[in-house]
Amino acid sequence: MRVLRNCWYMFAWAKEFDAAPSITRVIADEPIVVALAAEGAGNGRSNAAGHRPIAVTVKHRIVWIWLGDAAEANVSAVPDFSCFDNVNDAGFHGGHLPTAAHYELLTDNILDLSHADFLHPDTLGGGAMTRSAPRLERDGSMISVTWDAPNDVALPIFDRRLPKPGQPAHVRLQVRWLPPAVMLLRAQVAPAGEPLENWFESNSAHIMTPESEFSTHYFYGAVRNYEQDNAEFTAKQAAVIRHAFTTEDKPMIEAQQRNMGTSDFWSLKPVLLSIDVGAVQARRALARLIEQSGQDATGHAQGN
After folding, report:
1. Is the pTM of this model over 0.85?
2. Which residues pair with 230 in a beta bridge?
3. d(Cα 33, Cα 203) in Å, to the nearest integer?
4. What is the distance between the alpha carbons of residues 303 and 289, in angstroms, rounded to a whole number?
5. Terminal CA-CA length for the chain
6. For the chain, is the Cβ count within 10 Å smaller at the N or the C terminus?
7. d(Cα 41, Cα 71) in Å, to the nearest integer?
8. 301 is a domain residue
9. Backbone region of residue 123 per phi and psi (left: phi > 0; alpha: psi in -120 to 50; beta: other values)
10. Which of 16, 43, 78 is the last residue of a domain?
11. Of 14, 4, 8, 74, which Cα lies nearest the Cα of 38?
């Protein structure tokens, strides 16, 4: 499988290793086993022919693997999810959702948050994102897309927390994308006219790790700046989020993949809208990085 190899991929949530000392998953068509010691140190290897070593590091509650040459693994390049370090277990939830679709289709979904107004109208939507124009910014390899609605309606999961549910709200959502498919979504909501930083905020990970050409490990997790010590509230939020992903996002994306079959995305000549700006930029940036890595059609370095 042709993917970017000299980078970090999420392999698992560290919490998953509480139930087993080692986990085996297929990543980019390669079976990989990772083991964690009690103190959190990890080691990995490929279960394919040759049993090559896999570099492993644990940071921000996440177990990361370097898919390229282990000797070239750069720990300083691990994506920043330090927001997950600032809360205890009662205020954090994370999940893993296998999805039968190419990982970039899932990236497209997160980089166009206007989809929430249609797929998740009762939880994560509300209409504000559809009425907002996405603003794109680039900083090195990072692409961020921001939707800002200073006087609109709050997302339903935030609206009930406002002093007066239904009152005008300032809503700002920002997705930060890093290659190959690592995203942090920051959601802020306040009564219209109030400083966002004084009110409600959540930060959620949406990390897509390819299993094969047409299957993906979708990892998601979230923290918030309210009810941080309320484990019952966290469990209820986790159930709402998983239900939305499982019954709304996942069926839509898997149907999209079935309709596309094995066709290359660009070969289908998709109609591009202004709301697609983030997804298109991310696809093109990733394609350039893979091309610059000098891989052949099989995904291996040319000449090997």
Report:
1. yes
2. none
3. 29
4. 18
5. 15
6. C
7. 17
8. no
9. alpha
10. 78
11. 14
CA atoms of 130 and 200, how far apart (whole Å): 21
* DSSP β-bridge partners for residue 177: 143, 183
Asked which of 78, 100, 121 is the last residue of a domain, the reply is 78
CATH number for the domain harbouring residue 8: 2.102.10.10
Cis before 180? omega within 30: yes
CA distances from 4 to 36, 47, 59, 124, 242 (A): 25, 20, 21, 31, 28
Whose structure tokens read 């999805």?
Answer: 99
Would you state the pLDDT for residue 299?
54
Considering the domain architecture, whether residues 10 and 72 belong to the same structural domain is answered as yes
Q: In this predicted model, what pLDDT tens digit does every residue of 178-206 receive, in sequence order?
A: 999 999 999 999 999 999 999 999 999 99
Widest Cα–Cα separation across the chain: 65
Residues 98 and 213 in one domain: yes
Alpha-helix residue ranges (DSSP H) falling in the chain: 103-111, 116-119, 156-159, 231-244, 250-260, 277-292
